[in-house]
Amino acid sequence: MVFRWFGEGNDHVSLDQIKQIPGVEGIVWALHDVPVGEEWPMDKIIEVKNHAEHYGFNIDVVESVNVHEDIKLGLPTRDQYIENYKKTIEKLASVGVKVICYNFMPVFDWIRTDLYKELEDGSTALFYEKAKLDQIDPMELVHQIADNPKFTIPGWEPERLAYLSQLFEAYKHVTEEDLWNNLHYFLEQIIPVAEANYIRMAIHPDDPPWSVFGLPRIITNRENIRRLLKLVDNPYHGVTLCSGSLGANPNNNIAEMVREFADRIPFAHIRNVRVYDNGDFIETSHRTRDGSVDIYDIVKAYHENGFTGYARPDHGRHIWNEECRPGYGLYDRALGIMYLWGIWDTLDRLQKERA
Ligand SMILES: [Mn+2]
């Protein structure tokens, strides 16, 4: 079990606090201040390693080493960025990193229309309103999301958004097939380097798993993940199976995906979402009955397959008046972990008792 941590001075949650969540062995980290496309500096990597290890945490999982837009666009300039990416893989391997999470979503990482939508119990959570998204100008949404006075939002870094209108222009003629080709090119370059360094690359699915603002999106469902894994048939090329991202589409059965792709999932994001008939969805607590995703069956599928990868609760609601980065409060993620452990430990005991 691992827990995402944004770094010293960049996270309201401390490593002391994470230490008190039962069963958390590592932090999921990144150098959030290195601009996308640049090679990560070794001194900063070592700084995080030393800090985490001082608290007894491993740094096995990095999320994310972001992919420069020129790579996704397939521009001639991509090769330099791919070279930087390879060097970062080698450096991370040298300090013991085992898994690198990344995504291949054009322009935006995840998208929501409301970061603090109130649930029935008075807690708030990330919310996606389909009708609003269909109408809103992307620039306006960017200001609503990124102009958060207290916290920077992962995936919505200012430097990434500064060239937004140019980026939209650049993607105008990029089809889904182009994006597949550009991903294929990237994978063929980096997977051999990852393999040589014993790092498992784990692509995160698109969130939400459909096209937004007319941008192409491809890591969206079982069939596409099947196609993705075949692009480069190598165990070091895998998926960060995110039940919340894929779960926003009720046609996605995540537990079935776990059963099919088990040996290609080094990293699991496990969280629940409640999907409404009109296409809206909101992030909920982890309990199966609180949302539309069968968390029990997902954990069961991992257990059946003897999952030995890394898992994190991904997001949580904002509860008990906690002031936090949207989705990344301490309390609800800790509750989520205890729910996951509850299922896992029960399955473990049942298995032993039957043996
Ligand atoms: Mn996720």
Question: Explain this structure to me?
Answer:
This protein has 355 residues and is α/β, with parallel strands linked by helices. It has a single domain, classed as TIM Barrel, CATH 3.20.20.150. Helices cover 41% and strands 15% of the residues. The protein has 14 helices and twelve strands. The strands form two sheets. The chain has an eight-stranded parallel β-sheet with strand order 1-2-3-4-7-8-9-12. Strands 5-6-11-10 form a four-stranded antiparallel β-sheet. Strand 2, helix 2 (42-54) and strand 3 (58-63) form a beta-alpha-beta unit. The longest helix has 24 residues, at 331-354. The chain is globular. The two termini are 25 Å apart. The structure holds manganese (II) ion (MN). Manganese (II) ion (MN) binds next to helix 11. The site of manganese (II) ion has 6 residues, from helix 11.
Structure, briefly:
Helices cover about 40% and strands about 15% of the residues.
Detail the topology: elements first, then pairings.
Layout: E1 2-4, H1 15-19, E2 26-29, H2 42-54, E3 58-63, H3 69-73, H4 78-94, E4 99-103, E5 114-118, E6 124-128, H5 130-135, H6 138-146, H7 158-161, H8 164-171, H9 176-196, E7 200-204, H10 222-231, E8 237-242, H11 243-247, H12 254-261, E9 267-269, E10 272-275, E11 281-284, H13 295-304, E12 310-312, H14 331-354
Parallel strand pairs: 1-2, 2-3, 3-4, 4-7, 7-8, 8-9, 9-12
Antiparallel strand pairs: 5-6, 6-11, 10-11
Helix pairs in contact: 4-9, 12-13, 13-14
User: What is the CATH topology classification name?
Assistant: TIM Barrel
- Would you identify the regions where 5 or more consecutive residues have pLDDT less than 50? none
Number of domains: 1
**CATH C-level class:** Alpha Beta
Return Rg in Å.
Answer: 19 Å
Tally of separate helices: 14
Question: What summary fits the major beta sheet?
Answer: 8 strands, parallel
Shape: globular
Distance between the termini: 25 Å
Helix content: 40-55%
Looking at this structure, what is the CATH superfamily? Divalent-metal-dependent TIM barrel enzymes
Average of per-residue pLDDT values? 95
Please give the number of β-strands.
Answer: 12
The secondary-structure element order is EHEHEHHEEEHHHHHEHEHHEEEHEH
Strand order of the largest sheet: 1-2-3-4-7-8-9-12
- Give the CATH architecture: Alpha-Beta Barrel
Briefly note the structural class of the backbone. alpha/beta
